[in-house]
């Protein structure tokens, strides 16, 4: 791909300023000017004497493009520019231009896949993923039950349920998987070029996929994620605000003074109108969220999801009559065309309300923070790594306490879900214990990755 073709693909400007060499900032700015800070990372892709001032468009969102280019810039700096120090200036510029084109091509290709396979995504997330998770949890509990006193349940699980996979074999498998992904997503010129293809395989598998999977397979990492989710859910439940919002509210009170009674009444009316609008909006399915009638989920498709929920909450044994009534009612309603259309539309809208621009941007930021903590050099290391069983147990107990507090403070909802306060601790302990062994987590994550890949690239099946 020539420089002229790259410029033709450029449809969105990212302003350029004078940047000396390839110097990256070593710390992140505040949230207020974060986008400008990220643009500064991306500007290192430009050459000062070049006439090109634009970068190709990646997605539908300029802000998301900036975040993606910031991550891409750090990858280029750490894994491309360091390899090509001995090359001439023009050659390095041309090669980086090629990478920019490939990166934009893949991003647009993935976006096209998501847009064209929205219905299949709903099926994968509501049918296939619950099935994989429930099967995994049941196999873990079975291993816990069957293990002897002198062995760990992780060894039993690996022997009975890992399909004979070991870490070395999964590394080889990921190489093959990435090689097939490159064939599908990248243009023919890159696939036919042996050097470019090996470079892409090494970058995707060796730097991104392997490090992400291996990092998230660590037990303490999963426990800390569960603990942070519990904190976030508690804050949402209490309706807490951060310090900046509280300070802003205080300033408004001082500047505007106390609100009159009439203003309070108007605010109450606006709140109720807004609440009514949200309730009515549930029953209005936009054309964007209509699923193809041939791909509508039927009652039998919800069996894995209901089985997973029953497995977690034990509703089927605690409330057998109510669960039976619910299942029969749902089965009858799903035979009605308008009900099936409504349910499938709601599920599709739910998925794409969660997986939005903000969610994807947060994921990109997390990947950047995980791989480049100081936005400078590749440092794929957790901030805190337990070095002994005692430290690992401390992380376990701290996050178990957070999860238990969140579930216990649910009041009536937690009593309905778990039945009694003692069951909260028992269920939280079981969930935490499920992720005790790294090898087991590694197999689970690889299976989830396989599911997500097949969701977008069914030709790899």
Describe it:
This protein is mainly alpha-helical and 461 residues long. It has a domain at 31-113. Helices cover 71% and strands 1% of the residues. It is built from 21 helices and two strands. The protein has helices spanning 3-9, 34-42, 62-81, 89-116, 118-146, 153-161, 167-185, 188-192, 194-216, 219-238, 243-256, 261-282, 303-313, 315-318, 320-333, 337-354, 357-371, 389-408, 412-418, 421-434, 438-456; strands at 12-13, 54-55. A two-stranded antiparallel ribbon has the order 1-2. Helix 2 (34-42) packs across helix 3 (62-81) and helix 18 (389-408) crosses helix 20 (421-434). The longest helix is centred in the first third of the chain and has 29 residues, at 118-146. The radius of gyration is 26 Å and the shape is globular.
Topology (elements, then pairings):
Elements: H1 3-9, E1 12-13, H2 34-42, E2 54-55, H3 62-81, H4 89-116, H5 118-146, H6 153-161, H7 167-185, H8 188-192, H9 194-216, H10 219-238, H11 243-256, H12 261-282, H13 303-313, H14 315-318, H15 320-333, H16 337-354, H17 357-371, H18 389-408, H19 412-418, H20 421-434, H21 438-456
Antiparallel strand pairs: 1-2
Order of helices and strands: HEHEHHHHHHHHHHHHHHHHHHH
Biggest beta sheet summary: 2 strands, antiparallel
Overall SS class = mainly alpha
Q: How many strand segments?
A: 2
- Helical segment tally? 21
Proportion of residues in helical segments = over 70%
Which spans have pLDDT < 50 for at least 5 consecutive residues?
A: 1-33, 46-52, 240-257
In percent terms, what proportion of residues is strand? under 5%
The value of Rg in angstroms is 26 Å
Q: What integer is the average pLDDT?
A: 75
- Spatially, the strands of the biggest sheet line up as 1-2
Quote the distance from N terminus to C terminus: 31 Å
Broad shape:
globular
Protein name: PXA domain-containing protein
InterPro entries: Phox_assoc
Region (Disordered): 1-24, 240-264
Biased composition (Basic and acidic residues): 247-264
């Amino acid at each position: 791909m020539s420089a002229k073709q790259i410029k033709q693909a450029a449809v969105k400007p990212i302003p350029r300023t004078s940047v000396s060499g390839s110097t990256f900032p070593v710390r992140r700015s505040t949230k207020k000017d974060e986008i400008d800070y990220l643009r500064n990372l991306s500007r290192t892709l430009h050459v000062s004497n070049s006439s090109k001032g634009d970068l190709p468009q990646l997605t539908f969102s300029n802000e998301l493009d900036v975040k993606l280019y910031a991550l891409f810039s750090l990858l280029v700096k750490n894994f491309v520019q360091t390899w090509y120090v001995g090359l001439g200036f023009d050659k390095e510029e041309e090669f980086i231009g090629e990478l920019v084109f490939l990166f934009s091509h893949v991003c647009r290709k993935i976006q096209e896949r998501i847009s064209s396979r929205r219905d299949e995504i709903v099926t994968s997330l509501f049918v296939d993923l619950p099935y994989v998770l429930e099967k995994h949890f049941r196999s873990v509990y079975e291993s816990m039950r069957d293990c002897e006193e002198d062995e760990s349940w992780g060894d039993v699980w690996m022997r009975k349920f890992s399909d004979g996979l070991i870490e070395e074999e999964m590394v080889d498998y990921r190489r093959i998987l990435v090689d097939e992904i490159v064939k599908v997503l990248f243009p023919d010129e890159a696939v036919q070029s042996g050097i470019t293809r090996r470079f892409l395989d090494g970058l995707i598998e060796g730097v991104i996929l392997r490090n992400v999977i291996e990092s998230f397979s660590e037990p303490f990492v999963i426990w800390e994620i569960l603990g942070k989710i519990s904190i976030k859910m508690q804050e949402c439940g209490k309706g807490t605000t951060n310090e900046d919002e509280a300070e802003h509210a205080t300033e408004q009170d001082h500047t505007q003074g106390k609100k009159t009674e009439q203003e309070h009444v108007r605010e109450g009316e606006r709140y109720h109108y807004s609440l009514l609008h949200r309730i009515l909006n549930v029953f209005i399915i936009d054309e964007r969220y209509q699923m193809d009638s041939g791909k509508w989920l039927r009652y039998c498709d919800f069996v894995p999801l209901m089985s997973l929920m029953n497995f977690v909450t034990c509703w089927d044994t605690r409330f057998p009559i109510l669960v039976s009534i619910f299942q029969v009612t749902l089965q009858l309603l799903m035979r009605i065309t308008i009900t099936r259309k409504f349910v499938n539309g709601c599920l599709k809208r739910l998925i794409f309300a969660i997986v939005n621009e903000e969610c994807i941007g947060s994921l990109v930021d997390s990947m950047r923070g995980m791989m480049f903590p100081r936005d400078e050099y590749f440092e794929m290391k957790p901030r805190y790594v337990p070095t002994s069983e005692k430290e690992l147990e401390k992380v376990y107990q701290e996050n178990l306490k957070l999860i238990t507090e969140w579930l216990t403070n649910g009041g009536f909802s937690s009593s309905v879900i778990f039945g009694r306060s003692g069951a909260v601790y028992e269920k939280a302990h079981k969930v935490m214990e499920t992720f005790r062994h790294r090898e087991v987590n590694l197999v689970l994550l690889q299976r989830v990755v396989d599911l997500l890949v097949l969701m977008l690239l069914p030709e790899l099946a």
